[in-house]
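Human: My hope is that you can spare some time for a protein that puzzles me. I am handing you a single protein, as its sequence and its fold in token form. Could you go through the record with me and say what the backbone is doing? Take your time, and here it is.
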Amino acid sequence: MPPTNTEIADTYLAAYMSKDPGKALLAPDVSLEYPLSPRKIVGRLNVTEYMLSVMPGFDAVEIERHLVDGEYVATLWKAHTVWGTMPACSIFRISAGLIAEVRSFFDPRPILQREQLIPHSEDMELGDQGQSGG
């Protein structure tokens, strides 16, 4: 019996857990979008290179649940990282037994705060978005 779409999507997060992008069942023309990626990343080699660039920051991945609708799998998960724990949601489109698209959503503030690109939330007053007003 072939793997389910959920099992195929799980290979992507299993790759992060093992720090081995080869475990992800990626289509040759897979596309990847992340909140902090500079652009849409297209192609297995480019996606693999991107995965390798961020994998050192991952300590563990904790899958909470999957929601499945046909060729789409939405996965709620937590990334335990060097920046802290970040809840995330990844939407996978599965085609012909491979991951054709990955769109991940998460709050990038822990990363930006660690890299000192934005102030820590405790340094901001309620309602302050880190912007100077006039």
Summary: Residues 5-18 form the longest helix (14 residues). The two ends are 63 Å apart (CA to CA). The helical segments are 5-18, 44-54, 109-114.
